[in-house]
Design goal:
171 residues; mainly alpha
């Protein structure tokens, strides 16, 4: 195996390993809150009064419940579309040389597949984290996968910009 092939294989292994870790953490958190704490029956639990709640939500759509029609075709699209995007992110990330970019991409992939797995198993995404502030009740909940996707996307956007600027300054 030549060094280029080994390097590409190493990148794939890093990305897939970190993606699987994110996926497992996401699914374990959902199993814990759904089945051990029985949040699906309790619906809400106070973690930090006035700020952090465990609030059960079944998201059949995308962000904030958009496209939550419940139709079979919509469910197929909401499984297929993130899968295609994950493959695109994976192929893009393999071409990158920076290790942090690989981890950010893996964060997106692992989180997205966590939510896809929910759609397959439960028919909807399991959301349970809720942050409320200043007396305003936040009606939306999210999960570990959502946090992972968000951090991965923000990481790619901001880290890519700063690393490009560094290379421009050095050149």
């Amino acid at each position: 195996m030549d060094s280029h092939s080994k390097s590409k294989l190493d990148k794939i292994l890093v990305i897939l390993t970190f993606s699987i870790i994110i996926l497992v953490l996401d699914q374990l958190s959902k199993l814990y809150f759904l089945h051990i704490l029985d949040l699906s029956n309790k619906l809400i639990m106070v973690a930090i009064p006035g700020f952090f709640y465990l609030k059960m939500a079944w998201n059949e759509g995308i962000n904030f419940g958009l496209f939550a029609s419940g139709s079979y075709n919509t469910k197929i699209i909401l499984i297929a579309f993130p899968t295609i995007i994950c493959l695109a992110v994976l192929f893009w990330a393999i071409r990158q040389t920076d290790y942090l970019i690989h981890l950010f991409a893996a964060s997106i992939i692992g989180g997205a597949f966590g939510n896809v797995l929910d759609r397959i198993v439960y028919g909807a995404v399991v959301d349970f984290l809720n942050i409320t502030c200043c007396g305003i009740q936040n009606p939306y909940s999210f999960n570990v996968a959502d946090v992972s996707i968000f951090l991965g996307a923000v990481g790619i956007i901001f880290y890519s910009n700063t690393s490009n600027n560094k290379s421009d300054i050095v050149s």
